[in-house]
Write a structure and sequence with these properties.
alpha/beta, Carbamate kinase, Archaeosine Trna-guanine Transglycosylase, Chain: A, domain 4, 2 domains, 13 helices, 36% helix, 17% strand, cytoplasm
Length: 377
Amino acid sequence: MTPDTDRKRIVIKIGSSSLTSMNGELSRRKLEKIVEEVVRLKDDGHDVLLVSSGAVAAGYRKLGCLTRPESLSEKQAAASIGQGLLIETYSDLFISHGYVASQILITRSDFSEENRYNNARNTINVLLDRGIVPIVNENDTITMDFLKFGDNDTLSAKVAGLIDADQLIILSDIDGLYDSDPRKNEDAKLLFEVNEITPEIEASAGDPGSAVGTGGMKSKIEAVKITMASGIPSFLGKSSTVGIIYDAVYKNAVGTYFEPQEDMQNLNQKKQWIAFNSGPEGEVTINHSATEAIIENQTSLEPSAVHSVHGRFRKGAVVKIFDVNGDEIGLGVVNYSSKALDQLINETDIDLEKYEKAAIESEQLVCLLDTAVPAGV
């Protein structure tokens, strides 16, 4: 490690196209290249976690399919074969360099339940503290489409927040973010540093570009939104570039660096869980003055400011917060069940003792507008 460089926690996301050969088989040569670069970072003293795609791509030919399967059951069967091949190859390669790799398969429900979320965080912290290289993937074999993270770009961003990473590196088959689609515009320019995800940047993201993976530039931009809201710098670059992983950490790589603005309000662990993982159970609509107070001053939400309650939820659940115009402004952990809160706001003779607690405490509330948190993640 260079004298002026601190130990970092680095999450590296590897896409399917970065791991497989032209015919869709797992490429040991490509994995060797990735492992060698991770080993260089480990030798420098950094902690590294891999979020690795490739299970379906590695397994579908062994299943007897000539092309990548379309049906959910065949994809899951291919993943059950391919995941074993993937982790076996990673493990052998890391052991040959004196490091141990571990496998962590995650489903969205592992993140949506706070106890399981914290348990995953604790487990990964132990692995990193012991010098292990955790290799994370979604548990494609058992996860239903409606319970999926969507893609490993999103998963990697959420894992980066989970472990308080210092950097997320997303590798794919493109050099980085361009000001327009380079496949359609030969004059498109690569952006070296981005401090804000503007509507223009989102518009230039385009559609998925690889037939092997599930994500495209749009999913990568959504992932970057999560890391920027969490105060985590990110990098997007081309996996085939020599030394891309190592150089990205030391900011010498060709690609796009996403640096959160210094004045941006970063979310702590609790608020990251609320914003990105919790799975809201209901909704509350609040009056105009409360909306302004939350946006401008990050205040708690008092029961008297709740205009109406929608859906059924328990005390301690996460709910969506809407203003009277129907715009979603935040998320928060509610101190009352839907029944109790509805009764409270509709009472004509108010019992002040029932107001001992706010409807949602400021420490348990995330304002989507003020923190640049992407709505609907």
